[in-house]
Amino acid sequence: MTRPSAEVKSVQPIYLTKQEVEKRVQNGQILIIYNNKVYKLNKWINYHPGGELAIINMIGKDATDAINVLHPDYVVNNKIHNFYIGEYELGDSEENMIHSQTSTNESEQLLTVAKEMSISMAFRRLESKIKERGLYDCNYWNYAYEIVRYIILITIAWCLVIYGTTTLHYIISSICLGMFWHQLAFTAHDAGHNGITHNLHVDYLIGIFIADFLGGLSIGWWKKNHYVHHIITNHPEHDPDIQHLPFFAITTKLFKNLYSTYYQRTLDFDSFARFFVSYQHYLYYLIMCFGRFNLYALSINHLSSGKNLIFRNLEISSMILFWCWFSYLLSYLPSFFIIILYVLISHMVTMILHVQITLSHFGMSTADYGPLESFPRRMCRTTMDVDCPWWMDWFHGGLQFQTIHHLFPRVPRHNLRSCQSLVKEFCDEVGIKYHIYGFVKGNGVVLGALKDVANQVKLLKTVAKGNHNKSFITKD
């Protein structure tokens, strides 16, 4: 006797419109859209390796392109589907034009769903082309050459301190140590993006060894900071990489005492900030010389107050070991004056790195075109590349191609130059400007942007003074 076959019941998918997604978000659901499917991440957000804010800044939005370029294949092929709740239904209202005018005297932008989707589709074709050419693959010989360079720099630094007899020896040693930290940052950056072994935990451990133990900086802090920067680049309220008050303001929006969603505090534009911002184009390079000291403070704060840190104890131990070996190195120096000089020079050398990093964003747009703007349009609008010959790639670390890196964060930086022609073709195809300047011209663009904002502060002071004098005369 045969048993009747069990009736297979098909489950009808739930369809959610934009309005329904927004309503659920208002009720506390953490929803994102990926490939026209809706995912609820309430149970995952606290464990996201890129931090909570990386997800929070994408709530209710189409995160397809950002997820594809920032996450390895196993996330998009397997893990994310555990959080699926329904299909996203594009409503008629979303077909309407959305008008957005920037606050930086740029021309008005007319964004449509059709246009932004066409850009996204072209971008996905570009990503497929880059994968087909093997540009996501890591050539480990590149790291072999870099390791040799690192060993040479740190060996010279130690030998000149231990066996040195003159101040010149110690100065050369401090410069080599600063260059050692400068160069290490590029490899730590790769580890933070899972771009070395493509294994989350292995690359995290590599990052801890390089950043925490050899450099004294938290790779966990860097990941939390940097992933938000990649998702919401140059947004005055959300991107920590442009929130540098009281020393810098790259947009007049920061005059309004904005609330930073990253630092969870108001960025006060007080008298102290007004003074420094008034002269920021003159102080830019000087302040950058002390940037590494600020990174120490941010790293310590992150490890002491951060939540759900998977390698907290290992990072703390590694940073303690950094201060042990660095203090031991300093103990060989003959006087307190030489120690102070050594610390200052070694840290000031790393200002090159801070200039290289800020160069790609400080002079670029800080406008917000709203949730309709496609991921590739925002990355190209807010980021510039630095043009230089191939033999200078070691100096810039390959990260002079910041636009390309922001479009494809997991492409090994040694392959970014090979992606350049493809990205230029893409920008020409979709009508997006590809910003690229030489190193000197790029510095000029940044200093010009800083000066423009500084002039606005001085103008506000003049207006305020004029109003005060007018009030005084009227009162008399």
UniProtKB/TrEMBL annotation:
Membrane topology, as annotated: Multi-pass membrane protein
Xref: Pfam families: Cyt-b5, FA_desaturase
Gene3D superfamilies for the chain: Cytochrome b5-like heme/steroid binding domain (3.10.120.10)
SUPFAM superfamilies for the chain: Cytochrome b5-like heme/steroid binding domain (SSF55856)
Keyword set, alphabetical order: Heme, Iron, Lipid metabolism, Membrane, Metal-binding, Oxidoreductase, Transmembrane, Transmembrane helix
Transmembrane segments: 150-172, 204-222, 282-300, 320-345
PANTHER family: DELTA 8-(E)-SPHINGOLIPID DESATURASE (PTHR19353:SF30), FATTY ACID DESATURASE 2 (PTHR19353)
UniProt protein name: 1055_t:CDS:1
Top-level taxonomy: Eukaryota, Fungi, Fungi incertae sedis, Mucoromycota, Glomeromycotina
